[in-house]
Amino acid sequence: MRLGSGLARPMVGGGLAARFMRTESRSPRIEDSATLLTASLVGLVAFASVGFADKPEPDASKSTIIQSTAVVEASGISFSHRDPTCVWVHNDSGDDAFVYAIDRATGESTARVQLVGLQAVDWEDMAIFSVDGQPKMLIADVGDNLSERESVTLHLFDEPDPHQDARIPVAAIKRINIRYPDGPRNCEAVWVDPRRKRIYLAEKATLPWAGVYSISWDAPEPASLAHATLRREASLAIPWITGADHDARTGDLWVISYWQAFRFRLQDSQPLESQLTVIPESIALPRLKQIEAVGVDAQSRMWVTSEGQQPPLMLVDSGALAAMPQTQKVEIDARN
Question: Which of 34-48, 216-230, 253-267 has the largest mean confidence?
């Protein structure tokens, strides 16, 4: 989905107390009307506000220009587990079924891989993770701006060599068709947690709530997941979620919108439901055209890129992260 220039920029400066994130022992219902009304008002104020907050300009010293002319609408990135100096990227809808490997330092293309026999309906995110030492790649064909797709698809296969062009036959790709338990949803954020053996999807929605869904993934034979129904795990009071990535080293979860990044830290070995109920740290993202992709590298650093030709691959300074006090009320600031 594209943003018009007139849309305001919501900037969440605090949490809805303990309700900023909510686990889903049940779906949101009318008995939560006070909380839902509060969140709805927050959204209305965000999009109607005429106040603007400072947004950092891109720092050229921390970015690399993606040189590949094939990358024109970057929608998903993920760092290679076969060579951590490379990052994989794919386009949004409009491209054929290709993924591209990029040298992080130079921005030069190192590989172009075609998924033969697949149609890229609306690829929105990707993830790379390892199972028993074997790097895997997940491509999420889950975009649904009109919320009308009865099912969406995850494509799972071994991570290709990021230094060699290749064609992956459809026979080598696991096709996992999934449905939401509460009807079609638009989604642009997917991540995999191998420790929990689950694939997660975060809905792209306006306030009050964005749903977080999951499906079990038990290596090495996930074929039973075909035509499976997702499980709703939680709701997040974060509008316009456009990407996510799981930090395999720390267990932290990064979630981004067009304007901000949120880090949900993992405490000990808590379940995701508990991890998402902790108020996250937040940071404003740089002023790029349209940020829809985030990746965490082997050093736990967070990178983003944007749509457009020759977009920057940009390191976001996590030193600017600020914890949201749980006692602080939600404050709204907005900008175009």
Answer: 253-267
| Alpha helices, H only, 112-194 | none
Q: What is the pLDDT of residue 319?
A: 67
215: how many CB neighbours lie within 10 A of its CB?
A: 17
- Sheet with 241-246, side-by-side order of all strands: 241-246, 253-257, 260-264, 281-284, 322-323
Q: Which of 86, 123, 116, 115 is nearest to 101 (CA)?
A: 86
Q: What are 202-226's pLDDT values in tens digits? A: 999 987 799 999 998 764 444 445 5
CA distance 58 to 115: 33
Q: Are strands 281-284 and 21-23 parallel, antiparallel or unpaired?
A: unpaired
Which has the closest alpha carbon to 2: 295, 204, 202?
204
pTM of the entire structure? 0.81
Which is nearest to 199 in space by CA: 127, 294, 97? 127
Reply yes or no on whether the pLDDT at 82 is more than 50.
yes
